[in-house]
Amino acid sequence: MINNDWAEILEAEFQKDYYKKLDQFIQKEYQEKVIFPIKEEIFNAFKLCSFSNAKVIILGQDPYHNINQAHGLAFSVLKGNKVPPSLKNIYKELFSDLGIVAPDHGELTKWAEEGILLLNTILTVEQHKPLAHRKKGWEIFTDSIIGHLNKDNRPKVFVLWGNNAIAKKPLITNNNHLILTSSHPSPFSARYTFFGSKVFSKINKFLRETNQDEISFEIK
Question: Quick one: pLDDT at residue 151?
Answer without folding.
Answer: 98
